[in-house]
Design a protein that fits this description.
272 residues; mainly alpha; two-stranded antiparallel ribbon; 11 helices; 71% helix
Length: 272
């Protein structure tokens, strides 16, 4: 947890586009490098670190989710959310084995799409250089920008781990890996802290659909590049949430067995 203290202030102070890059690229690279190093150096001996990593995971999950509840700035909320998600990934690291590391790889893929999508909405809603940062700024968005509201709702549901989205599959894999490692206290805390996260993630959809806007929201046209990124992230969140391993689109000849890919990527470190 102490290693995450910089995140809320940096997320809030940096431009949203830069924050979006930091939130996914830096975290994905750091966790991929950490998992690669630990698996490559320790292999099956990673169990010696399970207790320490488990405690760090609990601290990250609890502090990240509790602090996110009290935020009124969406970028700070997503910063504390990212701390909580780092905790979920640390659960996979504590579980160890092929199942734990494979779950981390899939979680990184899932987190990239759902978090980049959430920050993409914040970027797309910026008007004349002013970011849409306050959570209250999303009030009534479903009336003025229904498409944006629907996409933001999808990304919030996925970050909360609601079934039917890639976020649920990612948390489920972490959950199962910890159970297989007989670290039952960790999946219990994953479930409890996920319940807490539902409150602050669904706060934004409630504001968008059930509140009148405080004032007439400025409207700006979404750039084609932004629309492409948001559409791709939304497709990935839904597609990988429904067909994470057997997904295929025969019309265009696309086959995406993502969980198999994640398993294959770590298998070499756990060969007998």
């Amino acid at each position: 947890m102490p290693f995450h203290q910089w995140a809320p202030d940096v997320y809030e102070g940096a431009p949203s586009a830069v924050t979006a890059f930091m939130s996914v690229a830096v975290k994905a690279a750091a966790f991929a490098a950490l998992a690669r190093f630990i698996a490559g150096v320790l292999g099956t001996g990673v169990e010696m670190l399970a207790g320490v990593v488990g405690v760090l995971a609990v601290l990250s999950m609890v502090v990240g989710n509790v602090m996110a509840v009290i935020q009124d700035n969406v970028k700070r909320m997503l910063a504390y959310s990212s701390i909580a998600h780092a905790g979920y990934m640390l659960v996979g690291l504590a579980a160890g084995g092929a199942a734990g590391f494979s779950a981390i790889v899939f979680y990184l893929i899932a987190y990239t799409f759902m978090n980049l999508g959430a920050f993409g909405i914040v970027v797309a809603l910026a008007h004349r250089g002013q970011d849409c940062e306050r959570i209250e700024s999303f009030a009534g968005l479903a009336r003025s920008r229904p498409g944006m509201a629907a996409l933001m709702t999808l990304f919030m549901l996925s970050l909360a781990g609601i079934p039917g989205t890639v976020g649920f599959i990612a948390k489920f894999n972490i959950f199962i890996a910890a159970i297989r490692a007989e670290m039952i206290w960790l999946p219990v805390l994953v479930a409890l802290t996920s319940v807490v996260s539902v409150f602050y993630y669904l706060r934004i959809p409630v504001l968008m659909y059930m509140r009148e806007p405080a004032e007439e929201a400025p409207r700006s046209e979404i750039a084609s590049g932004e629309a492409l990124v948001l559409g791709f992230c939304a497709l990935a969140v839904l597609f990988l949430g429904i067909l994470p391993n057997d997904g295929s689109l025969p019309v265009i000849g696309l086959d995406l067995p993502v969980i198999d890919w994640a398993n294959a990527s770590v298998a070499q470190f756990f060969l007998d």
